[in-house]
Each structure stands twice: as structure tokens, then as C-alpha cells.
Amino acid sequence: MMSENLTLELPNFEGPLDLLLHLIKVQKIDIYDIPIAQITSQYLAYLQEMQQLNLKIAGEYFVMSSMLLRIKSQSLLPHNDFADENEEQEDPRDELVQQLVTYSVFKKVSAYFRKRNEQVPITAAKEESVPQNKKIQPLPKGQITATELTNTFIVILQRMKIRQPDIVSVNVNETSVTEMAHFLQKKLAKHQTVSFFSCCKEMRTLSDVIGLFLALLELCKKQQVKVLQKRTFGDLCLERIDCDDK
């Protein structure tokens, strides 16, 4: 059973979502079933402790506290007896869960790239020697942009809703990215085009999905794969780039 009087230390959090993830992680709470009343009281206690120590609190922390209180009040409202029983009732916590899952994923991806950047050997700059016609050009019209790629990945995570006991602990390592790159290469070796959504359905864990997404970025960087998207937040069509097409 989780304690209502949680002892809070004062580490340097990157924002209100980082604080909420910390509270969820230390108490081993399911991120898809957050006890909103308990988390709200602990979050407000943390802000009060910061104020007592005369620490500066960013405005975004108070915005989150307002959101938590709103969700808490909505969860206390009586059930609508006139609503259709077959109609699924919207959970007031859904918006918060979506923000936490998205933040958790991008925090892990950011940590992965930061660690990888630290492992890259120091190189000296030199004048460019790549011919103008060989330089990487912007994606032609009709192909996907980096922002659209990111938004679609968020939708994939929301659709799959892969649940793990410790959802905020996601291990992403270079080995898994390499394995997923081989997975995509085998798919594309058999077919000229492959659906990214279909590939995600074969994944078992959230870590596998993130590894698959990072592998896709690596293959795009190496110009082995071209990514197309017919509509916003739609499926990603992965097209193999043969040597003759480069």
C-alpha cells in the first residue's frame, strides 16, 4: 500500500511532468491507472515545500497543479445516469496520461542520443569535400517531414498502449536499435514497401517500439529507406532505396 505521507527530496526536476513521473516511479504506480487524489496531494505538498524554502517555482508548475485539481474535481462528479450504458465514458485522466507517456518516451530517446553523442570520438573539422549534387537535399514535396514523423510516432504509442509493470522505466540501448535495423532490412529485402504500423504490431514491448523507431531514423540517415505518408498521423510507408536510386 502506498503511503499518503510520502517523503519528498528536492532533486532538480526538468518540469512538472518530470516531477509527476518521479512520484509515479518511486511508488510503482501504473501510469494508466493514476490515483489522482493521492498524486495531486503529493504534488501540491512538493510545491508547498519549495515555497517554504523560498525556491523559485516556474509558472508551468502552477499550471499543472490547476490541471490536477480540475481532473480531481471531475473524477468526483457523480456518474451520468442518463448516458448510454454502451457508450464508453471519457476518463478525465486521459489527457494527463497522454502527456506523461509522451514525455517519458522522448526523455528516454533524448537520453539515448545524449549517451551516444558522448561515445562519438572527437573529430576535427575540415572544409567540405562533398560535391554539391551529392549533398543531402530537403525531402521532396509529398514525403514526410521530421515533425510529421514525430507526431505519427506519438499516435503509434497511444494506439498500442503497451502496458508494463514499470512503464516509466524504458531501456533503450544500441544493441536493440541494431537488431531492429536488421529487422527492417529483412522486411524491405522481401518487399519494396513496408507498413510501419504493421511492423509495430509485431513488437512486444514499448522498448521494442522505440528501438524500431530509432532504427528507422538510422536507415533514413544512411539513405537506405525513404518514408512516405499519405495523410497526417497516418501510416508510414517505408520504401527501400536501391543503389541505383541514390
Search tags:
8 helices, single chain, 246 residues, mainly alpha
Largest sheet: 3 strands, antiparallel
Weakly predicted, low-confidence segments: 162-168
In whole angstroms, the N-to-C terminal distance is: 59 Å
Helix content: 40-55%
SSE order, one letter for each helix or strand: HHHHHHEHHEE
Give the structural class. Answer: mainly alpha
Tally of DSSP β-strands = 3
Helix count? 8
Mean pLDDT: 76
Strands of the widest sheet, in order across it, are 1-3-2
Strand content: under 5%
Please tell me what the overall shape is.
globular
CA-based gyration radius: 22 Å
Describe the protein in words.
The protein has 246 residues and is mainly alpha-helical. The chain has a three-stranded antiparallel beta sheet. A hairpin with an 8-residue loop joins strand 2 and strand 3. The chain is globular and about 65 Å long. The N and C termini lie far apart (59 Å).
